[in-house]
Amino acid sequence: MLKSYLTQPPYQKFIIIQDTLTENGKPIFDYLLQHNLERFDNKIHYYLVQGNEKHCPQNPKITVHNLKINSQNWDTDNRINITQIAEGLQKRDIIFVDSLAHCIFQYGLAETYRLFNMLKNEIGVAQIVALLHLDLLDSKWKTVELFNFLSTLSMKVQPKFSSEHGRIQYQCKKSGGRVVKQIEEYYFQNGKLETKKIEKLDPKKLLENASRPEINPDDLATFKISLTDKEEESRSQLVLPYLPKDENSSTEGGQIFYKFDEQDDWDEEDPDDDLDI
């Protein structure tokens, strides 16, 4: 389902990939960039706000805009203002932003939001794909909520859970007003992004497959219960007395008989029955 939202028409207008340092969304970002290069002839504008320009993809269809140049405004003459970013963009153009958090740091939250609202609604570019690093944002500013409202497809990369594949939690706004919220597994196969629904686990099967923990009797008692190999061997060699029978029978040599006295206290119950083994 998620893959169809990403690669099949109607194409999403504004895609946000939320990630963290541990759950990296850059592979999905790069896959969407490669998909656009292979499938469409649209011009792609790559806005670099973090990282090294050497790592940007080299392709005639891609125009790289290095917004890191003079990002601290040391040289006011070469300062790239926010309005210059939108200059020359056409409706069929596709925009990739790496990353949205750094763009907010550089231009401010209000100006950045105004820019992307203009790109989406006023200029009406074909598509916007942006990385949003969650661990760089302050939750009190409600940045995620603001851009989720503006986006048409918002994805959050999540860690693996009981599977070898990672997870993506996404929210997709359809043209009719319907909102789809889902969590799916994702992986890459031969360089292609694959997604699949997470099957609901059956509680009965989980209980059946759960292995019962082995109980060690020594852990339940205040004294030693088990025997060592040497103690086992000594016990097997011990000759116990035979109790006499009422019937007369011939005896064999080497047998030891014990005759009860009146003072003997004989308890037929096994004292080990009280132990939880």
Automatic annotation (TrEMBL):
Pfam families: Elong_Iki1
Region (Disordered): 234-277
Metabolic or biological pathway, per its Swiss-Prot or TrEMBL entry: tRNA modification; 5-methoxycarbonylmethyl-2-thiouridine-tRNA biosynthesis
GO molecular function: tRNA binding
Biased composition annotated in UniProt, kind: Acidic residues: 262-277
Main localization (coarse): cytoplasm
UniProt KW Cytoplasm keyword: yes
A GO CC annotation given for this chain: cytosol
Keyword Cell membrane in annotation: no
Localization per record: Cytoplasm; Nucleus
Family, per entry: Belongs to the ELP5 family.
PANTHER family with a match to the protein in the record: ELONGATOR COMPLEX PROTEIN 5
Official protein name in the record: Elongator complex protein 5
Organism of this sequence: Acanthoscelides obtectus
Upper taxonomic lineage: Eukaryota, Metazoa, Ecdysozoa, Arthropoda, Hexapoda
